[in-house]
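Morning!

This is the sequence you dropped in the shared folder:
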Amino acid sequence: MKKSAILTGLCICTMLFAGCEDFLEVTKYGASPTWETQEDVQKAVNALFSFNTNDSEGVTGRGIMWFECCSDNVTVGRAQSEAEDIRNFRMSPSNGRDVKSNWKIMYEVNAKANNLIKVVPTMALDEAFKTKTTGVAYFFRGLAMLWIAPYYGDNGPNGGIPIILDTTEPAAMDSPRPASVVMNYDQIIRDFNTAAERLPYLSQLAPEEYGLPHKAAAWAFAARAALYAAQYDSKYYNTVIEMCDKVMGITGADKRDLWDDGTDNAFANLWRKEQNFCCEYLFSLLGNATDGPKFHGMSFQKDGWQLYNHWGYYQPTLSLWEAFEQGDTRRDATILYPGQTMRFMSETIVFGGYGTRRGSRYFYSISSDTGMTFRKFLSPWEDKNGLGVDFNSNGNNASNKLGTCLIRFADVLLMKAEALIWLNGEGDGEAKKLLNRIRKRARLAENSTATKAELKNQRRCELAFEFMPSRHLDMVRWGDAKEVYAKPTRRVNSHWDNTTNEVVIDEPTNYDNGRTFDPAVNQVFPIPITAFDGTVHLKQNKGY
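The structure's back. Tokens below.
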């Protein structure tokens, strides 16, 4: 058999899947310059997940969440001057926050996928294995570009970001940027559709393969790419509907739906490891107590009252808290408000007040710069006995067994509802039904009016603080960023009353006095300065 060459420069740590509980076994890959066996190829497939480790803090720890600080949902959380530069649209190409890593690492993923797409079909291997392998490769090529294209590309004056395919000749890799980021979205949609043709359904994956891409995930991400393209050309809303219908039309064991246990805690209980692969699951990045994404440990209380070292970044704004309707069970499942209680490391926390700690009275101070914190993904830390079992014993890593969700079925319902409203007008009957499904699980009255304002608010409340569906990108594509960001961001103030022995909420104050968003410049971020090493044709985004 003819040996197949691997492009150089891609020798990195990889992860091998061995089941949804502890699939992260770090091994070195790339010592051999050739692929000869199916095992070699499988290692190359595993290398597509190489950004899903403790070592990739700038990608699956904080990363693009620095950009989400620009939204009206999230603040920086604690003092960090370069992060405040990002949030206030003063970011320079040399900004040192680790979001800069995403450009480089996602183009590395793109290159690894290209290798598989180009080489595997030429190898004398089982045809079913080759089909599935190339499906995974197309999926990750689409995901890598969807990860960064919305932040760096536009429809003018800057254009898209470089499109490098398996057919791109080396001499053509440093080419001028595409005229529009829509060209990126077109390629991303093609890649996800090709992936869906080759990938199995979720039910066709063996349990030890859970976490790998499948058809429904590919269609859902294609819908997201089309949603982003629709800000420039509304015809892409038709593609959104088409892709969402593919997901929604699946029947039998693979039918996707909103997960609901029938209790008022349904939304809170969704965010437990037991629901990692429930009916709502589409695609998540998995971890365990040894390795995996750090994201869930990046927010909450800085230092976790010395119980566990959460980092204290990314805190909710008062306007996000107020966006939830009265009785919406998602609010308290998403945000911890002063005076509320929760279980953390087997202790009863009274946020901003006195609770118990190791049997004694203890004051649980608030480190958050908004006076509130996110609680959405904290279930792994409820019990201290989960240390080293459900979450990493090293608080500097914070990997855990709760999947880091990148897309789920609720987003599919919301994307289709948006497309119907924007195409057919407010009050669309099918959009009402879709939004009422969302409202029902939130324990709200099923009385949707399917207005644009309602759709926007439901996306805000349902998807708040999730890693990849970005509120900031929504605000930019809807054209709302300039007006909304100009308004002051507000914070909650509270104090402990020793007379009444309770937390008292004081008058809110401004976190800032509003921010200046220039749509001509700030619709994109500066490309990291390191991206220009060795390039001639890559041009920086204007205004940076």
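Headline: Residues 127-152 form the longest helix (26 residues).

More detail when I'm at my desk.
O.
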